[in-house]
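Example (one chain per record):
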Amino acid sequence: MPLVKNGKIATDIFVHVPDGAELPGDGAILVSAARFLEDREALLRRPGNLGVIWPNNRDVDDLVPWLDRLAAVALVFPTFRDGRAYSQARLLRERHGYEGELRATGQVLRDQFVFMLRAGFDTLEAKKQSDVEAFAVTAKRYSVFYQPTGDGRLTALNRRLQQRHSESAASE
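Predicted structure:
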């Protein structure tokens, strides 16, 4: 599946391992939430990066104790009208301080890409290669925002206040 990571087209290093399938000996893997919760100690002990595909109808608080040991969390958009994964992303980034890869998967649409970035996603799985190319361009399109989020960008108001402060400091 085509991938965009940090606004650039990327190769997916994670292998999606279906429930019941044998785990590869090493390397980065993505497993379902059910498999992770059922066998988390064995999964966390295996060599290689571990990621979890977390459904949007599951509480992210159930994942919090292991966040520091997860290289990726893939949040699911089952339909473009269902935005619960946005809330999950913000909770993981802002409340729980998750710094690993936060991946959007499922019904990821071009016109929602900027919102996904603002919510804290840094990686997106796309259905078509043309979407990946459009996502890479869209990531660079907007540089100033009015709404605060946990993506670390200053809002337009904060930028103005900083500019006024530097101007007044320079005039003294």
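Caption: The two ends are 56 Å apart (CA to CA).
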